[in-house]
Description:
By secondary structure, this protein is mostly beta strands. The protein has strands at 4-7, 10-13, 18-24, 32-37, 44-49, 55-57, 65-70, 75-80, 89-95, 98-100, 103-105, 108-109, 113-118. The relative contact order is 0.33.
Amino acid sequence: QVQLVESGGGSAQAGGSLTLSCAASIDVFSIMAWYRQAPGKQRELVATINRDGAAYVVDSVKGRFTISRDNIKRTATLQMDHLLPEDTAVYYCNLGKQAINGKWYEESWGQGTQVTVSS
Length: 119
């Protein structure tokens, strides 16, 4: 199976910044995304990016978060600026299903990294 490893989580003050990274164990061709889940809430989409770099972020983080990827390094990054307390959540990296050299890889999820933003 594919392994996705997130890093960069931690604590920050409101208005601060954090950078989350996701490293994949295989080459990445499909859409990569970041989701988050706050306590007592459903997991929600934060941002997506396709192999060509076309990016999308949800309205609640637009202008504050930026998603990017490096297909050579097999990484996806979520740059989070102007953090708000409501950004507090566990953030998960996602890689869509892929086929590489005839082998099928199902959608993959990282273990998650905690982001805590205080006032």
